[in-house]
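To the structural biology subgroup,

Please find below the input and predicted structure for FAD-binding oxidoreductase, which we are adding to the shared reference set this quarter. The sequence is reproduced verbatim from the submission form. If anyone notices a discrepancy with their own records, reply to this email rather than editing the shared folder directly, so we keep one authoritative version.
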Amino acid sequence: MAQPSENAPHIVILGAGVIGLSAAHVLSERYPSYKFTVVARDLPEEADMNSQAWASPWAGADWSPIGDFEEKRYKRELTTFNRLWDMIPSGLVRTLPSRICYTEEIDDAKIWYKDLVRDFRILDKDEVPSGAVAGVAFTTVSLNPQLYLPWLRAELAARGVTFLRRRVASIQEAAELAGRGGALVNATALGARSLIGVQDTAVYPIRGQTLLAYAPRVQEFLSYPLGLGAVPTGEATYMIPRPAPPGHVLIGGTFQEDCWDLSVDYGTARSIWRRCLELAPALSDPDVRVLGHNVGLRPARRGGARIEAQWYTLPLESEFLPPPAEGAEKYDFLVIHAYGFGPAGYQGSWGAAEEVAEIFAEHFKPSA
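Predicted structure (tokenized):
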């Protein structure tokens, strides 16, 4: 592959979670003559795939309905769903028959996602699991982050995208890596709360605790919807079979806002298992076994995900940074923020990356 010229614009993607990697994928595809570097404290490689310091390795990583209709999110998730659907032959993505259960009667006219998924229909009464009143069925997609993130990295590396393991404290530091003629994509997730120059206090965690199980007869996605108050506060009940390894199912879970606790609560684990067993009696099969307990922090943001351009005047002046050198020349620098997706990072990832690329095309003008 041809290498970018020495004077090619240098675009830095800060953050190596699914949003940062997807943005790097779309941008590097559209601008093959530019130089791209993914900079992150945690990278999609073996040393970091069990780190709780970032969310992407622990995600459910399927498409499931979350909350009420939002036009921007719908467009983002439709783009992503279609992209993942096209990836099914690769083996990284699988189709899943699905049932979403509701604790009250539903009006299918108000089911905003029925045209996003495949094979949507209302469940007959005899198909509704015990404990639910009504439900819907459709076909969705799922993937395994432990396989998908390294695949994204390999795809980027094959294009000449470089990776730098580094903890970055400020927009200034990241901009210096890109240089004056470059730009930055800020995909720092929860890190946007403390990144100097951003310090977005609207960012907050939603704690998710899950179990990974070997349950080969659980072959459908079963869930109560997130974000609709259909289950007690802090609980989220779902099962997500993965494309590989065979028989692996993610069993969840919790949805605990503003909770930073990364420890496993085994009382919670027992509650999760009990709730899911009610939905899927196949979990009682003798060959079923728990493979691991997981806790991750979904990187959410009050007011919704932030995808927008911001021009900074650098050197950055902040009480938290050393003062700029006397006489330092000021310059404008483009940052595109892309963070705050909460539980919908994977299912909105390709759509978010397309938005980043559209904003980049609008605002970035390379130096002559």
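Summary notes: The chain has two domains: 10-55+146-203+303-363, 93-140+205-296. The longest helix spans residues 71-86.

Regards,
Lab coordination
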